[in-house]
Amino acid sequence: MVEVTYSVADGPEALALAEGLREASSRRHDVEPS
């Protein structure tokens, strides 16, 4: 699993990006069996 880190100083855009990457990673695992 990829750890996505961000700083509070980065603001909501960074948080949204981190959440998006985490969701995309989860969906990829659902679609591709390991």
Describe what you observe in this structure:
The chain is mainly alpha-helical. It starts with 11 loop residues before the first helix and ends with a helix. It has one helix at 12-31. The mean pLDDT is 73.
Amino-to-carboxy terminus distance: 12 Å
Strand content: under 5%
Coarse shape: elongated
Structural class: mainly alpha
What percent of residues adopt helix (DSSP H or I)?
A: 55-70%
Low-confidence spans? none
Biggest sheet, in brief?
A: none
Average pLDDT across residues? 73
Keywords:
single chain; 34 residues; mainly alpha; 1 helix; 0% strand
How is this fold's topology laid out?
Layout: H1 12-31
Summed up:
With 34 residues, the chain is mainly alpha-helical. Helix content is 59%, strand content 0%.
